[in-house]
Write a structure and sequence with these properties.
94 residues, 3 strands, three-stranded antiparallel sheet
Length: 94
Amino acid sequence: MHGDSPYDPADGDWQTLVTFFSPTEAYLLRGCLQAGGVPAVVADAHLVQAHTLLAGAIPVRVLVPARRLAEAEAVMAACQRGDFALPDDTPPPG
């Protein structure tokens, strides 16, 4: 499973929320969005990984449904504030 959210036509077409030059940052934000209940997809990460010499010219896009854009922006702001961060003293699961 690749981790991208499924497409739901009721939410509208996918729209770019933000771009990164690092696929890792895009995947982290996708996880935050999904944890916040917003469907999200990472696009173009494979291009950047396959063509590393061109990585600065190929942004990795995080896409969300058009009708959920405002919600996605709020979740992204919460992620940037650290609302999804785990405390440093959290024991590992298990």
